[in-house]
């Protein structure tokens, strides 16, 4: 058996992003079950995961249900010490846990005014004073963490840790709503946008369902400020360079085109998530470059 993780819409569910990053970014295998927010899908699915009420919710291989991302982080850290979800240094680990706890419980103004939406980026969202106060607090604790741990990496406590996982949706909000932050915070946001796991999640979030009206805003839009994806696009037919899907090994049923070349996949989702950001997917890029898949 393996872990099972219930998630909501990838493009919108900030808590689900945290839960999934705790697995993907630390190479812990997991099976995901997805349900649409603002429908009956999520409460219906969670009937099989009592006492959970929200996404993400974890079921361990032995069957124990663990709701809430902070509990999931601590449980995975205790079960997989080799994954280094928290810093090894006890003082740095304490700092990281402070960060995760404050993020888990706070910043309600930012959450309310700027709900995470990985499908768009706005030129301006006219942030009110409480949102600006939340941004100032973020910069305060991010600066404190880097100084307290002596971090010389893009991350808050040295190596990428669960503390950074908890701020990934905040980075998405700052990028998506073009929120005003200083150079240190901007560099931290950019590190998140370039992180391989974040790019994979966003690529899936761009194609895994219709837009949710709850997140629609009428503000002027701009291009997403993260890495510019290679210009791939879906095409009709099944003719492709490869006979098997680079992910499942299944037969080719759907195809994308990139740089005049055609590559095949076993289903529309495999194709579309790859077309959204080809460089986010090492197995596809190995195929594209003629290398052995990792």
Automatic annotation (TrEMBL):
Record domain GST N-terminal: where: 1-84
Keyword Transferase: yes
PROSITE patterns: GST_NTER
InterPro entries in UniProt: Glutathione-S-Trfase_C_sf (IPR036282), Glutathione_S-Trfase_N (IPR004045), Thioredoxin-like_sf (IPR036249)
Protein name as it appears in the record: Glutathione S-transferase
Organism: Fuscovulum blasticum DSM 2131
Family matches, as Pfam families: GST_N_2 (PF13409)
Keywords of the record: Transferase
GO molecular function, one term: transferase activity
Transferase among keywords: yes
